[in-house]
Write a structure and sequence with these properties.
Helix content: under 10%
Strand order of the largest sheet: 1-2-5
Radius of gyration: 14 Å
Largest sheet: 3 strands, antiparallel
Strand content: 25-35%
Structural class: mainly beta
Order of helices and strands: EEEEEHE
Number of strands: 6
Shape: elongated
Number of helices: 1
């Protein structure tokens, strides 16, 4: 491991509950540089990954809840019972 280079984030986990989807992740090694934000992306209905606005903006928080209504609308267009694919 290069101790001066930040590590890539591991998997982002998504859990549904009611009308919300909660995303969570572990803090990666920071390479001695402060993490200023996380870029959490969700695969849209068309197969293109799109960033979740405001999800990951606070580097001290490692969770984010999003309404399913947000994910069902543009630009995501995720359908009910569709697997939600996430990356960071």
């Amino acid at each position: 491991m290069d101790l001066d280079k930040p590590a890539q984030m591991q998997s982002v986990i998504s859990v549904t509950g009611g009308c919300q989807v909660k995303f969570s992740w572990d803090t990666p090694f920071d390479g001695k540089s402060p993490i200023i934000k996380y870029n959490i992306q969700v695969e849209s209905g068309s197969g293109i990954f799109k960033s979740l606005d405001k999800c990951g903006d606070d580097p001290s928080t490692k969770t984010c809840s999003v309404s399913f209504q947000t994910l069902a609308a543009e630009p995501f267009l995720i359908r009910n019972n569709q697997i939600i694919k996430v990356r960071a």
